[in-house]
Design brief:
Blueprint (H helix, E strand, L loop, with lengths): L3 E7 L2 E16 L2 E5 L6 E5 L2 E7 L3 E7 L2 E6 L2 E6 L2 E4 L2 H44 L1
Parallel strand pairs: 1-8
Antiparallel strand pairs: 1-2, 2-3, 2-5, 4-7, 5-6, 6-9, 7-8
């Protein structure tokens, strides 16, 4: 029986490495889809949500993932994400996605807007200074 190897990579660590994975279900902007060992190679952009996979020795396992990218090449599936959480309680993982990942995205957007305003202000002052010196 053909099985997959599955890795989840975070910015500063390898979060999970699983072997003997029979199927993986992920969430994308277009909806959920499953991966089986003989599926064609693919790349998918993931949205914050719950990922599930089945391992012979553990049964079904759930991970909460922030947005990321999935790459499947042959029997290897690698996901690179910003944040991840593992747990057996599906309801708590769903809460983690809703509270932690989506709330952080809102904070990050506000921070990006503030940085853009600071950069714009800096550029205006720089141009004004340059015009003044000319």
């Amino acid at each position: 029986m053909l099985l997959m190897t599955f890795k989840v990579l975070l910015p500063f660590e390898v979060f999970a490495v699983e072997t003997n994975v029979s199927c993986i279900v992920v969430e994308t902007a277009q909806g959920s889809f499953g991966l089986l060992p003989r599926r064609l190679d693919c790349v998918a952009a993931l949205v914050p949500g719950i990922l599930s996979f089945e391992v012979e020795s553990q049964g079904e396992v759930f991970l909460a993932l922030d947005e990321g990218v999935l790459v499947k090449t042959g029997p290897d599936v690698v996901i690179s994400a910003r944040r991840a959480s593992r747990g057996a309680d599906l309801a708590r993982l769903r809460e983690a996605v809703e509270q932690e990942f989506l709330t952080l995205d809102t904070h990050e957007q506000a921070m990006r807007q503030t940085m853009a305003r600071l950069e714009t202000g800096f550029m205006r002052r720089f141009v004004s200074l340059r015009d003044h010196l000319s």
